[in-house]
Specification:
Length: 202
């Protein structure tokens, strides 16, 4: 997945590629150069994205040669952890699958900044095609320390300060001092939808 931020935290400026699309193409070419097989597991969260994004990634429409790629769409029932177990190497674009792979004792590469890539987890982070090729040429020599994934796992399960005045109901909605912060927004959306449905311009 990709991030949008108001700071330069996720500018990707240090990478040779500037988008997930470009990173995938670089990976695909490197995999082919070194005679590896490539399986792609689209994130289930893709199902909540715009139709254009779903079509793009679930068909890899931006890739010219897809014959040798095993593609699992975002709606595939295949278990991601079973795929990790069957893989020799896991490559992600910042996904938590990277450090989860390390926990499963599988070498991991991230082609993007990730929240766990600088806290000691044994995840490789190539910044160029040359660095990626070097890793691809020596997959069996890549180190993996499952214990190195534990700090981030612990952080994810315990981080933050407990709310005193706010009570979350979902990841994006909650109550502040007992008042639903999203009630007005939902009401406005319903009103706008009703106007579009029942009101016709003269």
């Amino acid at each position: 997945d990709e991030y949008i931020s108001v700071s330069d935290t996720f500018t990707q400026s240090e990478f040779e590629w500037i988008s997930q699309d470009e990173a995938f193409k670089v990976l695909d070419e490197s995999v082919r150069r070194h005679g590896h097989g490539l399986g792609v597991r689209n994130h289930p969260h893709l199902r909540t994205k715009a139709r254009s994004d779903r079509l793009k990634w679930d068909s890899l429409s931006f890739v010219n040669n897809k014959e040798d790629i095993v593609l699992l769409s975002s709606s595939s029932p295949v278990n991601t952890y079973e795929l990790i177990e069957l893989s020799d190497l896991v490559v992600t674009y910042g996904s938590t699958g990277g450090f989860e792979s390390v926990f499963c004792v599988k070498p991991a590469i991230t082609l993007s900044d990730a929240f766990y890539d600088e806290i000691g987890a044994t995840v490789y982070k190539p910044l160029s095609t040359a660095e990626l090729d070097e890793l691809m040429s020596n997959i069996s020599l890549l180190l993996t320390n499952p214990d190195s994934s534990l700090p981030y796992g612990y952080h994810q399960s315990t981080f933050g300060t407990r709310f005193q005045l706010y009570q979350p109901r979902t990841l994006f909605e909650g109550d502040f001092l007992g008042k639903d912060l999203w009630e007005k927004t939902r009401r406005q959306k319903l009103t706008s939808a009703a106007k579009r449905l029942f009101c016709r311009p003269d």
